[in-house]
């Protein structure tokens, strides 16, 4: 019996599985049909989640249910009448509290109490992506699946959460990409350099000397309003 390992790595989460294949398969990548142990590591977090198939099933169920609640805006508390042993609940705007009972944990040292771990939104969605990659891998736990209850129309209509923000963000990205694609397709306008003008085509200004604008010395000066005409010698009195 050969031990088989699988790893699904994301920037903020690494999911590692270990098990074996009950059937003899000489292929280069034999399927992992029986899980004996798994680990989940998070970035910037020293706590490691370790367990077996029971913990993996409960973790995947709660992570997908919480992601469904975030995207639909439906409160999971009103949607989960049965108290779950493994709990995952939002405790802030971008923080989620994961609580795992002691009996589901497997580690070299026997845990003395339940595990409580705060996950950020990016850690949670990277864990979701790792679990999705696991379920899409036909060579690892082929029968692994989830049982999620679909939301009713009433619940979907009442919930307005992150889903609309994700849609708006997606439309914004698509619009930006479309504009960028159009700008890439359009030809670059050709810029023509200005041609130098000939000296003959440049209009010249005629300079008029100041003497040409003054009247000749012997020309009579026109009368202006307010001037008093002088009497001539012939009309002066006493002659």
UniProtKB/TrEMBL annotation:
The chain crosses the membrane at residues 166-186. Pfam families: DUF4335. Residues 191-239 are annotated as: Disordered. Signal peptide: none annotated. The keyword Transferase does not apply. Residues 212-223 have a biased composition (Pro residues). Residues 200-211 have a biased composition (Low complexity). Keywords: Membrane, Transmembrane, Transmembrane helix. This is DUF4335 domain-containing protein. It comes from Lyngbya confervoides BDU141951.
């Amino acid at each position: 019996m050969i031990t088989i390992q699988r790893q699904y790595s994301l920037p903020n989460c690494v999911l590692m599985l270990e098990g074996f294949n009950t059937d003899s398969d000489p292929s280069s990548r034999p399927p992992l049909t029986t899980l004996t142990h798994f680990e989940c590591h998070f970035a910037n977090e020293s706590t490691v989640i370790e367990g077996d198939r029971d913990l993996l099933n409960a973790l995947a169920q709660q992570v997908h249910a919480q992601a469904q609640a975030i995207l639909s805006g439906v409160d999971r508390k009103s949607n989960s009448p049965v108290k779950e042993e493994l709990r995952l609940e939002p405790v802030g705007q971008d923080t989620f509290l994961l609580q795992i009972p002691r009996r589901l944990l497997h580690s070299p040292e026997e845990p003395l109490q339940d595990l409580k771990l705060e996950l950020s939104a990016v850690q949670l969605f990277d864990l979701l992506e790792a679990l999705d990659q696991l379920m899409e891998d036909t060579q690892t736990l082929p029968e692994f699946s989830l049982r999620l209850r679909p939301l009713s129309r009433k619940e979907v209509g009442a919930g307005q959460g992150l889903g609309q923000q994700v849609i708006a963000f997606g439309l914004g990205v698509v619009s930006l990409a479309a504009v960028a694609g159009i700008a890439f397709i359009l030809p670059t306008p050709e810029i023509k350099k200005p041609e130098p003008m000939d000296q003959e085509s440049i209009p010249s200004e005629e300079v008029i000397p100041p003497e040409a604008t003054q009247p000749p010395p012997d020309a009579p000066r026109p009368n202006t309003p307010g001037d008093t005409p002088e009497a001539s010698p012939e009309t002066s009195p006493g002659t």
